């Protein structure tokens, strides 16, 4: 199966691109620069310090989890934010003749790209759709005291917000002592494998998928704040993970999740 990967530039993105490259024939990688500036959401110096500590810790955790993935191991092309939608970039993608387009961490992909590869664009959404859609959707379950809703969704892309038909859900194996970044990186590892499995399955034939309902919560970047970061760490300090693990089976049973059907 020939594939192209549309992603971004952090270690997490390089890890996913390198992981799927071991499963399918990746013939092109486009890395789109990020536009998110978290310190823009700080109202005071104290807020800035809280946000900076959070993202410094996230970076340190990613450096440890994905130490061998500072770069993509295939030749990659860099584009600015939104650059994957540029007509010249679309033409280069078309010329690569992919059987599947694998997406993780880009900005919004628009109709011309989706029309170019109908029913062949698979995305990792870091969150369990439809329960949590939009931005920061493994951050907000923890802020809300719902670690059982941390996970990732492999889905076909449409023009909605993480709303395309679902191929598979995956979740991290949360253990005592895990913090938010360990949970996040475990989710990324699970998602990379699931994306690769879905691409291989699509190479064999049609892949079953489940339409999403309209229920659930949608978070935007504008919802992020230092107050939310403080609530996150307060949840951990008050024993959120221990409480979840003590009632894991009961709490997990409330979720309705999709598994990849064998072809």
Structure summary:
This protein has 263 residues and is of the alpha/beta class.
Explain this structure.
The protein is α/β, with parallel strands linked by helices. Helix content is 38%, strand content 16%. The strands form 2 sheets. It has a 7-stranded mixed β-sheet, with helices on one face. Strands 6-9 form a two-stranded parallel sheet. α1 runs parallel beside α6 and α2 (45-65) crosses α7. The protein is globular. The mean pLDDT is 95.
Break the fold down into its secondary structure elements and pairings.
Blueprint: E1 2-7, H1 11-21, E2 25-32, H2 45-65, E3 76-79, H3 87-95, E4 100-103, H4 111-116, E5 121-125, E6 132-134, H5 140-143, E7 152-156, E8 166-170, H6 180-204, E9 217-219, H7 226-237, H8 240-246, H9 248-252
Parallel strand pairs: 1-2, 1-4, 2-3, 4-5, 6-9
Antiparallel strand pairs: 5-7, 7-8
Helix pairs in contact: 1-6, 2-6, 2-7
Strand order of the largest sheet: 3-2-1-4-5-7-8
Termini gap:
15 Å
Spans of at least 5 consecutive residues with low confidence = none
Shape: globular
Structural class: alpha/beta
Spatial extent as radius of gyration:
18 Å
Bin the helical content.
25-40%
What summary fits the major beta sheet? Answer: 7 strands, mixed
Strand content: 15-25%
Mean pLDDT across residues = 95
- Distinct helical segment count: 9
Number of beta strands: 9
Order of helices and strands: EHEHEHEHEEHEEHEHHH
